[in-house]
Design brief:
The chain is an all-alpha fold. It is built from three helices and no strands.
Length: 68
């Protein structure tokens, strides 16, 4: 199982030390770019779920391109 945990930077070294001392846990920090990418993908998936559920209106492709 994979788990993504968001913790304050000041507490990260302690938690990473604890996790690395557990033999069955493999822990490695994400780079800022990867963390941002994961966050954006999560937001996009949530938006798609809302559109499919009818809670949000989909935009047409030309509006999307204009946003870029």
């Amino acid at each position: 199982m994979k788990v993504l945990i968001d913790i304050p930077d000041a507490k990260a070294p302690y938690l990473m030390d604890v996790l690395q001392h557990i033999s069955y846990v493999k822990a490695k920090p994400l780079t800022a770019k990867k963390a941002l990418l994961l966050s954006e993908i999560k937001d996009a998936v949530e938006e798609m779920k809302q559109i499919k559920a009818g809670k949000k209106q989909a935009r047409n492709f030309s509006e999307f391109l204009d946003e870029l």
